[in-house]
Every structure is written in C-alpha cells, then in structure tokens.
Amino acid sequence: MQRDCDSATDHNATSCEITMRYSFWIFPLCCLAALGCTSESRETPVPVYPVTGVVTLNGEPVVGADVTFYNADAARSAFGRTDDEGRYQLSTFSSNDGAVDGRHIVTIVKVDAPAADAAPVASIESEAYVPPGAGASTTPAKPKSTLPEKFSSQQTSGLTAIVNAEGDNEIDFELTN
C-alpha cells in the first residue's frame, strides 16, 4: 500500500504534514554540516612563534635574500625574504606566522638572475640568422650568488638560531665576506 498525501484520512494528512515539515529542514542542515566539515582550520599542526630580524652583509642591509630556518627535531622549516631594509619575517604554515620552537640551522641565499642577452635576433630570411641550438651554447648562465656560497648550505652556513615559545625572537644575522 502506497501512502498518498492527497488521501482524505486525517491520520495520513497529519503524517504528510510532519514529513514535509522535516523535509524542509533536511537540505539546509546537510549543507551546514558539509560546510562545517570542509572549512579550513586556523589552528596549525604544531605551535609556531613569530620570528623577525635583519640580515646585513659587511654592515649593509641585504635586500631580497631568502632566509630559511630548518628544525630537524620537528621536521619543519620556515621561510622569509628580506625587504629593502634587510628585515625578514618567517612563515611556516601561513604568512608571517613564525617558526616552531627549538634549535634551527639557518641558510641565507641571494641570487641575481643573469642578464638577458640583448643581442638582436636576425630575421629568418637573413643570411645572419642562426637557428636556436646551432652555434653557440644554449645552456643558460647559472644564477650568480651575491652572498658568500657558504651561507647557502645547511652543512656550511655555520648559522644557527633558537626560537623560544616565550621571548621576542628578534634574530639578526651580520654576515661578512
């Protein structure tokens, strides 16, 4: 026997009203539940603490250097880039959130991209035209490090930092040639 909400019995009419009333709320509640399950959590997997500082080379601010803190115990690293004054802020999970606490090995790298070849390209119809790959090497020039190479490797940088859960974590690096 199939239930029909159009039938004349009072019992069926009441059941249909209740079913329709609850049906109205099922869709919005499912949407809210799905939204709650997919929303991003603002909590990080491990606590991080703000870290800032200044990088200088021979007393001058280093602009555009990449500063990386590696924490082997937590298997986490934090990254920052210096601004026009040599200042950096570290990010681990989100922008400028900081680094995990503990001892870190630090690397600082700054490379300048090689200048683009400004030689004019001859027209294909010209006798001076040289197809790509013919003649001179097409291997791009290696980017040039503007800081001493030793600072670019965890094994040779000699730079360390300790990030504390309590404290200001203002960590400056005064590099020399």
UniProtKB/TrEMBL annotation:
* InterPro entries for the chain: CarboxyPept-like_regulatory
Q: Where is this region: Disordered?
A: 129-157
Name listed for the protein in its UniProt record: Carboxypeptidase regulatory-like domain-containing protein
Tell me what organism the protein belongs to: Maioricimonas rarisocia
